[in-house]
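Hi team,

As requested, here is the filled-out complex form for the zinc ion run. I kept the field names the same as last time so the parser does not choke. Let me know if anything looks off before we queue the next batch.

— J.
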Amino acid sequence: MANPERFLRPIPAVGGISSAGMSDMRRFIEGLPKAELHLHIEGTLEPELKFSLAERNGVALPAATIEEMRAAYDFDDLPSFLAVYYEGMSVLLTEEDFYDLTYAYLEKAHSQNVLYAEIFFDPQAHTTRGVRFQTVISGIRRAQEEARSALGIDTQLIMCFLRDLSADSAAHTLEAAADFQDWIVGVGLDSDEHGNPPVKFREVFAAAREMGYRLTMHCDVDQENSVGNIRQCLDEIGVDRIDHGVNAGEDDELVAELVRRDMALTVCPISNRYVTDGTKAAQIKDLLDRGVRVTVNSDDPAYFPGYIFENLVVLQEEAGLSRKDLVRLSRNAFGAAWLDDDRKAGFLESLDAFVAAGQD
Ligand code: ADE
Ligand code: ZN
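And here is what came back:
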């Protein structure tokens, strides 16, 4: 169970700004106990680690320097991001690589007061390169366990299928995961949505549900038929959560249905800025005000610069969020976590203690 006092530890400096130089609102956001529900572990591969793994594994990279690499992170839509994202994975080969990747993220998340994270991984992006499923998941798992005991951060894993591969490939991946089911809480769906609607994976998601996995799917922002795809997730797949889903705000009946089902949306403002025409801060705030269980997350923070703290800061500043709104976002996230009621209650106690300490 989470320790309610954890938020009382000193606030570390972020992004080169000492905590003394931060605005009150930023300090509040930093201290807020957080849950991260939409984070691709492969999307946390920072250029510095990419270079060191490339050297360790003798892999050639297209960029000669970190600056050159960052300059190439110049996306204007989902496919242009995904091309760079998959290419970057070429340096991830051994269990140690997946351990290093995951531990680095967990240290960063801990420094931002993330108490709990549900982490996506993309096994097919590795097995299709000849890296074994077991290699991937064993490295991630070891980092989860060590971070739990060294840092006190709790995590669970969500296995994502790549929607631009076939439903058969997803079904094989579900089979390959069977030996590790105790390490995986749910399944998701990511990659390029164009021409790959939720119903393409109806059977494999039904099988996953039957096996006891929780279900989520990406409904990326401003895609072809975004609203229809969100509807499919609800009516044809029976998801437990939706990743992104911001376009739901365009349809009043759909918003009412999300509220009725208490369906969480895991939105990612900085990611939106890179793959659409802006952060969608106004639309996110509107969904929150209409009673949708909105949560804020970081998606692929090495590529869309900003972890959960920076995402909350951007949203707060652009949408004028109050402290109450920010607490609601954290409460929404702990409430939507795939945890039993006792563990949720432990985290919510940490949040209540933060609020009661007078910082609300
Ligand atoms: N894979 C990693 N990040 C993704 C995103 N934001 N959308 C779809 N697929 C992804
Ligand atoms: Zn995502």
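Two things worth flagging: Confidence is low (pLDDT under 50) at residues 1-18. Residues 30-359 form a domain with the TIM Barrel fold (CATH 3.20.20.140).

Thanks,
J.
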